[in-house]
C-alpha cells in the first residue's frame, strides 16, 4: 500500500487536536519504542494519546 493510500487511525478530535494511534506514532511499537504506555503496541486501534507524532511513512 502506498503512503497516499494508507488509511490512518490517527485523526483530529472535535476540538481539532490530533489523537495519535500508538501503532502510527514515532514513540509507539512501530517507532523507537520510547513511550511508557504504547511502546509494545504494533496494531492500530489498541491505544493512543494526544502527545505523539506520526511516523514519517504516514505523512503525505
Describe this entry's structure for a reader.
It is a single chain. The chain is mainly beta and 60 residues long. The protein has a domain at 31-60. It has no helices and three strands. It has strands at residues 11-12, 18-21, 48-49. Strands 1-2-3 form a three-stranded antiparallel beta sheet, with no helix packed on it. Strand 1 (11-12) and strand 2 form a beta hairpin. The radius of gyration is 11 Å and the shape is globular. Residues 1-5 have low confidence and may be disordered.
What distance lies between the first and last C-alpha atoms, to the nearest angstrom? 13 Å
Largest sheet, if any? Answer: 3 strands, antiparallel
The number of distinct helices, counting runs of at least 4 residues, comes to 0
Radius of gyration: 11 Å
Strand content: 5-15%
Strand neighbour order, sheet with most strands: 1-2-3
Oligomeric nature of the chains: single chain
Shape: globular
Helix amount: under 10%
Sketch the topology as an H/E string, one letter per element. Answer: EEE
Q: Regions with pLDDT < 50 over 5+ consecutive residues?
A: 1-5
* Overall number of strands: 3
Would you tell me the overall average pLDDT?
88
Structural class call reads mainly beta
Amino acid at each position: 500500500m502506498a503512503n497516499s493510500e494508507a488509511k490512518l487511525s490517527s485523526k483530529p478530535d472535535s476540538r481539532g487536536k490530533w489523537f495519535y494511534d500508538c501503532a502510527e506514532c514515532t514513540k509507539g511499537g512501530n517507532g523507537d519504542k520510547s513511550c511508557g504506555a504504547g511502546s509494545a503496541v504494533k496494531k492500530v486501534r489498541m491505544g493512543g494519546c494526544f502527545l505523539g507524532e506520526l511516523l514519517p511513512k504516514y505523512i503525505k
